[in-house]
From TrEMBL:
Residues 31-65 form a coiled coil. It comes from Blautia hansenii DSM 20583. One of its GO terms (biological process) is intracellular phosphate ion homeostasis. Plays a role in the regulation of phosphate uptake. Pfam families: PhoU (PF01895). Its main location: cytoplasm. Belongs to the PhoU family. Homodimer. InterPro entries: PhoU (IPR028366), PhoU-like_sf (IPR038078), PhoU_dom (IPR026022). This is Phosphate-specific transport system accessory protein PhoU. Residues 17-102, 119-203 form the PhoU domain. Keywords: Coiled coil, Cytoplasm, Phosphate transport, Transport.
């Protein structure tokens, strides 16, 4: 019975990795749209977001089977309950990547995206998502803690965007609404970083039994 349970836990890890990879693709494709507004690209982001939603449902079903059929002990129970929390954050990451893709279609000052750290924010957010999932699979507490700390990098890049764009808007007031769109895109990336941080905190809980909220 335990061997079957271990196989199902390994299946859970594999499915989480797949969902994390979909989130990474969605973020990257969404930011790519700042350079390319072709409808095909828009549809691709839509498709990835739908795959993320489907993967969330599949993982939920697997977790319910593990909970109801296998009667997991405390450590296993934390692992399964943490996975359920993590996929909720990953689903939100997919939603926000879709929001970025939608807004990118209307941003008319695309050449500015590279000048205001949007690309850097996307890479930092992707790094956080990848490493948070990896830390869960490897049960690596130190790696999860590093993801939590790395959220400061995304936050600092967002602050730079907020500081730089007002000056640009003053110099080019006719494009003001598009600069505001870029701020919103940066905000979505900052939120993605927050969700990746949440995932890492649930990894910490799955290993230690303690969650950031419990520390007051």
């Amino acid at each position: 019975m335990r061997t079957k349970f271990d196989r199902q836990l390994e299946e859970l890890n594999v499915e989480l990795i797949k969902m994390g990879a979909l989130c990474e693709r969605a973020i990257r494709r969404a930011v790519d749209q700042l350079e390319d507004t072709q409808d095909a690209e828009k549809e691709l982001v839509d498709g990835i977001e739908e795959e993320i939603n489907q993967k969330e449902r599949e993982i939920e079903t697997l977790c319910m089977k593990l909970l109801l059929q296998q009667q997991p002990v405390a450590g296993d129970l934390r692992q399964i309950s943490s996975a359920l929390k993590m996929i909720s954050d990953m689903e939100r990451i997919g939603d926000q990547a879709q929001d970025i893709a939608d807004m990118s279609r209307f941003v008319q000052v695309k050449e500015l995206a590279h000048k205001i750290h949007i690309g850097e924010m996307a890479e930092a957010a992707i790094k956080m998502v990848t490493e948070s999932i990896d830390s869960f699979v490897k049960k690596d507490l130190e790696a999860a803690a590093k993801v939590v700390e790395y959220d400061d990098v995304v936050d600092n890049l967002f602050l730079k965007v907020k500081q730089e764009l007002p000056n640009m808007m003053k110099k080019d007031a006719q494009q003001a609404e598009y600069y505001i769109d870029l701020i919103m895109i940066a905000k979505y990336l900052e939120r993605i970083g927050d969700h990746a941080e949440n995932i890492a905190q649930w990894v910490e809980y799955s290993i230690t039994g303690k969650h950031e909220a419990d520390r007051g």
